[in-house]
Amino acid sequence: MVDRLAKGWFSEVSSEMWPGQAMSLAYEEILEDVQSDFQHVQILKTKTYGNALCLDGVIQITERDEFSYQEMMVHVPMFSHPNPEHVLIIGGGDGGVLREVLKHPALKSVTQCEIDGTVIELCKKHLPSIAQSFHHPKANVIVGDGFEYMKQHQQEFDVIITDSSDPIGPASSLFEKEYYSLVRSALRDGGIMCAQGECIWLHLDLIKSMQEFSRTLYPVVDYGYLTIPTYPSGQIGFILCSKNSETNFRVPLRRASSEDMRNMHLRYYNPDIHSASFVLPQFARLALEEA
Ligand code: SAM
Question: Is 260 a catalytic residue?
Fold first, then answer.
């Protein structure tokens, strides 16, 4: 049995998702350590990454580097849509994706369906710079299973963002073809979806199969990535699908000006990195473009 909290170091060990490697963070204090109805929830005060949320022993977000993931998961799909008025977030219990969605002036409503109310409450308490928007007047937050929620909604949303944990535990259904098909039905005409798309260094086979089934459902499918120190191998991707065959995710449909970027307090996203995120290293390009 591996000691995940040995000598002041938290180590992220997963023999299934990243065998033989582990990201470690030095921590000063364990602020929360509870078993919710769905998962083991921990919040650590780390030495150099601020407070960190871990679920079932896996780092979900740290205060220091969260912005790269949240901004790319939100602004790439939002700037690829002509007028994103109604948005749905599945998962995302730390509140970071919600915070970024609310920065878009076209937005009229944002619904969030997170399975675990404990995650939301603990993030409000210990990660307030991330979990700051749950009470925003445009936000409607529901505690429930995203897969079940999707079955009950048709043609409602312009953009659906799935900010899920890994496909082990409560999020496993969110990586399946049936879920992507339900998302398609819940999107309005021309709608766009973006989902956590795992890592090219570790999960190429999973990404390939997700791309393959997505292409049977949507006319446009693409995969981009971002860098982030505290996710396994320092990289994570996002799968994008559009119901509009004219969509080209690689060039922002609406280009954020310098003033927009200042007003939105962007720290990672800009129109150039939007396009650059689709430029894959050759091994990944070969694997995914052949998919
Ligand atoms: N960005 C992170 C990562 O990739 O490590 C994930 C963020 S974390 C906040 C993902 C959230 O998805 C968790 O709060 C978890 O409770 C939620 N989640 C997992 N399965 C879900 C489901 N079936 N429906 C809704 N939310 C779910």
Answer: no
